[in-house]
Amino acid sequence: MCGIAGIIDPSRVADTLVNDVQNMLAQIGHRGPDGAGCVVDNGFALGSVRLAILDPAAGQQPFSDPSNRYWLSYNGEIYNYLELKSELEAMGCRFQTNCDTEVVLNAWITWGPDCLRRFNGCFSFAVYDCKTESLYLARDRFGKRPLFYVRQGNAFYFASEMKAFLAIPSISFEQDAGQLASILCVWTPLPDQTGFKEIKSLPMGQWLTLKNGDLTTESYAELRFDEEPQPNDEHAAQELIRERMNRSVELRLRSDVEVGVYLSGGIDSSIVALLAKDFSAKPLSTFSVEFDDAEFDESSDQQLISEYLGTRHCAERISYQDICDQTPAAVYHAEVPAFRSAFVPMYILSDRTRREGVKVVLSGEGADEAFLGYDLFKETLLRTSWDQLSGEVRRSRIQELYPHLAHYGPEDTAAMTGLYQQFSKERMPGLFSHELRFQNGQFSTRLLKDKNTPLAAITDLISSTPDYDALSPVEKAQWLEYKTLLPGYLLSTQGERMSLAHGVENRCPFLDPGVFSLATAINLKFDDGLREKRLLREAFRNRLPDRIIEKRKFPYRAPDAAAFAKHQPDYLDLVLSDAELAKLPFLNAAFAKRLANKVLTKPASDISTKENQTFLYLLSISLLHRSFVRRETLPRATLPPLEKVINLQRETAA
Amino acid sequence: MQQIRDFIEDQFLIEFDESFPETSDLFKEGVMDSFGYIQLIRFLEKEFDIKFSEQEMTANVMVSLSLIEKTVSRKLSESITD
């Protein structure tokens, strides 16, 4: 895994670009501590920091073809690179390394952007064509690997993480109140949003071209739910699940270094660990977070799986104090506002993983979206069929929806029925499945002086998506999850930004395109969807302990405001002091202070989920303002060992 | 009825005024969520010693301060006439 950065600026000569690109790389050195490299010429600079995983000795970047016409800075892994390499060799390509980097460049030279559809993996990369003076940027279909860019007149900057732009004084990090309104309401940035005015994210499944000053973007992988025929029967469906998951895990174990597994204690990561063990000759290492607070702790299930599979298990126990201590650093790495604190333990866990000598892990992300694991999908089914259901069925279905939330208990079922009645008709066009979430999100927009129109951006996004209207209510719910919570939080803030903060790469077998397309072909075809991920569970029933197979979805959560209320870290001044709050010009300081005071003084049982979320937003936005806007308390940037510096004007190599 | 207004203002961190009138839909404005709704119902039932039927709770009568006040007044007067 790596980090990439680059500059296109026709007005600058090669010599003046070297320092800038190296300074950008230093800001993201944590992504690739094994080495750094760059290539510069008049008008362009490309660089990368790398975490050596495949053919460590030969994978130095940027990588060029023998003619030096094409230069590649590449972040990611193409899991099917061996198959693509054979195909390219049959077409006459010759390879010097065993690295997937060389396969990516040859695939691009051979097929152009059509190569992207062939890639099964997580990636973002930049290719510069010296002959046509064109830059191409591309990102994987689910948004596993990040890529941000800034355009200022004729100058164009890009990087794996926004913090690289801290090295360019002309780039401001002004927070965008309009985007913040959308983020607060929807929970996460939309695919092109970052929360900062000047900085854009290249959406998942897209590629960008910059040529003669013209910038264009195109999609190569729309999310489709009709790409595969339905299997004949449930038995065939389960067999296919096992086949695809086997293949997916096998591909993701391709590595020249040890691969571990993040074990949550749930069914998804247990399946991943089981299959990883099937393919591993050596004992498998597994990693988990445990909590002092029993409400969040899944350690007994984690230990059960670890013992069952005989893994070398490393558990990191998280206290309220740990959350308080590490939140500022974790927010700095996340770079975007966060609505819960559960990413902070993952920051701590990746540090432990790296210290245990493991720099690649598999995890279970993507299973809930593909196989309908979230209660949100059941809630959508319930609200869709509300008018056809009897009072008795409504009541029993409501009680089964969110058993971990006390206010969904039997004594309040009548009131809940009243609430759901109000949400049984679509009120936000196209967003039916997420109306309760977004309605609650509107509470958080009260943090802003001007609430703007928080749903405008997501409404534009679905309106501009071909065939969105034709999706079923549950498919729309999935689509929204694949464009918001999954890439905007789970894979990024809680996923790769936390793991790469400590040089650990994460891989997600449930995000294999073949697994996704199979799931879309079998969901709700053999059951009513009321037992979450039923087919997935049944497919592995005889291979995992019954307790894990039967375990209900236990949302991964961590102590939110309660941790801060208990330990009152110094930086809470950012959300409690009038002077500090006044530094954020877009903030409704009176509401922010009132909320912070309530959340930090009242018992946790009096604090609602949306108040918890709103507090986390306030805290993270304030911490981001301190780091990125005011550039205070920034960690020291360190460039990894410089392995390669090529100045095409001088043709000298270090 | 002042105690209902106080409860909502205190619990949901809002203030009723010209920009946020008593007729505002508390759900649509993002003020009340499922947790808050349950808190409110429990408060009203305890404070006024009344009980809401499921029918009342499914008839969209509890979405704004003015509707809540009206519903509570009606229930109180019904209990007196009973």
Question: Your description of this structure?
Answer:
The complex is a heterodimer of chains A (654) and B (82). In chain A, strands 10-8-9-1-3-2-18-19 form an eight-stranded mixed beta sheet, with helices on one face. In chain A, strands 4-5-6-7-11-12 form a six-stranded antiparallel beta sheet, covered by helices on one side. Helix content of chain A is 41%, strand content 16%. Chain A folds into four domains: 170 residues, 4-Layer Sandwich (Glutamine Phosphoribosylpyrophosphate, subunit 1, domain 1), CATH 3.60.20.10; 192 residues, 3-Layer(aba) Sandwich (Rossmann fold), CATH 3.40.50.620; 108 residues, no CATH class; 69 residues. By secondary structure, chain B is mostly helical. Chain B has one domain: Non-ribosomal Peptide Synthetase Peptidyl Carrier Protein, Chain A. Chain B contains four helices and no strands. The longest helix of chain B has 17 residues. Chain B is globular, with a radius of gyration of 12 Å. In chain B, 29% of the residues are buried.
Strand content of chain A: 15-25%
CATH fold naming of chain B: Non-ribosomal Peptide Synthetase Peptidyl Carrier Protein, Chain A
Which chains make the largest contact? A-B, 31 and 25 residues
Can you tell me the CATH class of chain B? Mainly Alpha
* Percent range of helical residues of chain A: 40-55%
Q: Name the CATH architecture of chain B.
A: Orthogonal Bundle
Count of alpha/pi helices of chain B? 4
CATH fold naming of the largest domain in chain A = Rossmann fold
User: How would you sum up the global shape of chain B?
Assistant: globular
Write the element-wise H/E pattern of chain B from the N-terminal end onward: HHHH
Strand order of the largest sheet of chain A: 10-8-9-1-3-2-18-19
Mean pLDDT of chain A: 94
Chain-averaged pLDDT of chain B = 86
Q: What is the number of strand segments of chain A?
A: 19
Q: Major β-sheet of chain B, in short?
A: none
Radius of gyration of chain B: 12 Å
Q: Which spans of chain B have pLDDT < 50 for at least 5 consecutive residues? A: none
**Number of helices, counting only DSSP H or I runs of 4 residues or more of chain A:** 27
CATH architecture of the largest domain in chain A: 3-Layer(aba) Sandwich
The counted number of beta strands of chain B is: 0
